Automatic annotation (TrEMBL):
Keywords: Membrane, Transmembrane, Transmembrane helix. The lineage of its organism: Bacteria, Bacillati, Actinomycetota, Actinomycetes, Micrococcales. GO terms for molecular function: serine-type endopeptidase activity; signal peptidase activity. Coiled coil: none annotated. GO terms for cellular component: membrane. InterPro entries: Peptidase_S26 (IPR019533), Peptidase_S26B (IPR001733). This is Signal peptidase I. The chain crosses the membrane at residues 37-55, 156-174. GO terms for biological process: signal peptide processing. NCBIfam families: sigpep_I_arch (TIGR02228). It is an enzyme of class 3 (hydrolase).
Length: 190
């Protein structure tokens, strides 16, 4: 009759401990990014929040080229002088984001306002006033974030980001040596 001996491997404390700590940090970062992304998705879907990317320097120095800002919907009646708003630009697919320098009522339409806008770095107001019933008001801006967002939206960056996330997911889910070390192996005794 053969006797079976259990062989239990011991854990390598230093290396496996560092790996576990790195996995926890990676998981924490992924959780925070995922949570913020989910929160942004809900706010943009339910509250109408948007991100404005500044492609020109017309709003410098407040919002220089490459800045990004968060904007929220606002009724025209609530727009005031000195607000920074995004409104549709007649004859263009792209909107304009400039500072309000004058607000006037529109006769016959209680909800509409005529806005005169000017970029902070421009010496004159925009050529034509904008008549709006609502707009997006900028509430906070972040320098350089627009550059990052534009870069990450490129196909090569999306592919690289997808690969990094996939590899990190596999690495976090792959069993570490400590998880497999306690699996008993049976060896016939002599």
């Amino acid at each position: 009759m053969e006797l079976l001996v259990r062989v239990v491997m011991t854990r390598g404390a230093s290396r496996s401990g560092q790996t576990g700590q790195a996995r926890r940090r990676c998981l924490t970062v992924a959780s925070v990014v995922g949570g913020l992304s989910a929160l942004w998705f809900v706010c943009s879907l339910t509250l109408g929040w948007t991100i404005v990317l500044f492609a020109t320097g017309s709003m410098a120095p407040t919002y220089p080229t490459g800045a990004a800002a968060i904007s929220v919907p606002v009724a025209a009646a609530d727009i005031a002088v000195d607000d920074v708003v995004t409104v549709p630009k007649p004859g263009s697919d792209l909107p304009v984001t400039h500072r309000v320098v004058e607000v006037t009522d529109v006769p016959g339409d209680a909800e509409a306002r005529q806005l005169v806008l000017r970029g902070d770095d421009n010496t004159t107001a925009d050529r034509e006033p904008y008549v709006v019933r609502d707009a997006q008001r900028v509430v906070i801006g972040f320098p350089l974030v627009g550059y990052v967002m534009t870069t990450l939206a490129q196909p090569a960056a999306l592919l690289a980001t997808t690969l990094v996330v996939a590899l990190a997911t596999v690495w976090m889910l792959w069993p570490s040596p400590d998880e497999t070390a306690d699996v008993p192996a049976t060896v016939p005794a002599r």
